Amino acid sequence: MTKVLVLGAAGKIARHAVSQFVDEEGLDLTLYLRRSERLRNLAGDRVEIVEGDVTDTDHLRQVVEGKDIVYANLGGDDIEDQARSVVAALEAAGVGRLIWISTLGIYDEVPGEFGKWNHQMLDGGYLEPYSAAAQVIEASKLDYTIVRPAWLTDVDEVEYELTQKGEPFKGTEVSRKSIADLVVKLSLDPTRYVRGSVGVNKPGTEGDKPSWY
Ligand SMILES: NC(=O)c1ccc[n+]([C@@H]2O[C@H](COP(=O)([O-])OP(=O)(O)OC[C@H]3O[C@@H](n4cnc5c(N)ncnc54)[C@H](OP(=O)(O)O)[C@@H]3O)[C@@H](O)[C@H]2O)c1
């Protein structure tokens, strides 16, 4: 059994990923979240629910111990502190594989008019801490994959393409369901994109802004 730990398990992308994970044979899931009553209905033979805050490094280390893969679906102003705590917990527990959801724009990799618009929308409190968090992950010894989604939609579709770190970001939007699909695929084949950082977009969505703006 591969043991997968989901951090921030009530998050919107995480909920899609969890519903895909439970359909996979051979996976044990631990769902880590604040206010755990939100996911209590998912507890079962292969699904354990643990209440916790990822900034509680000691508690997180105990939960990480014995896991094979950690998928962090976190967010917020303190994302850099969250990254430090997650890295410390995994390194202390001797667990290497981390899938970390970040955002487009952390390397100033979004080209053209959309790149300028993205800065206008996300500078001043969002992109900076997300960039700093990614630097914390990349400075670690972990087998991380950083996932940089385009602007997220709740469209019920799985359609995406990837760009690598160092390449210009493509497209403007992508569905949360697509990001969840990528997370599950990365978990099922833990050798993919190790120590990599991938941009994720829906093909054909190039433009100056996401379609709903
Ligand atoms: N919106 C976009 O267009 C866009 C584009 C690219 C990337 N992103 C980023 O992608 C990430 C995932 O997206 P999403 O839609 O799944 O986000 P989400 O629904 O906001 O999920 C983030 C989760 O992080 C959890 N969290 C925050 N601090 C925590 C802590 N200290 N301990 C434990 N859990 C904590 C939150 O828990 P609670 O539920 O307890 O608050 C929340 O459930 C976010 O960081 C988002 O900013 C967004």
UniProtKB/TrEMBL annotation:
Q: Where is the signal peptide?
A: none
Show the SUPFAM superfamilies listed in the entry: NAD(P)-binding Rossmann-fold domains
Note the Gene3D superfamilies from the entry: NAD(P)-binding Rossmann-like Domain
In terms of CDD domains, this protein maps to: SDR_a6
Q: Which domain of life is it from?
A: Bacteria
All residue ranges annotated as the NAD(P)-binding domain in the record: 8-189
**Protein name listed in UniProt:** Uncharacterized protein YbjT (DUF2867 family)
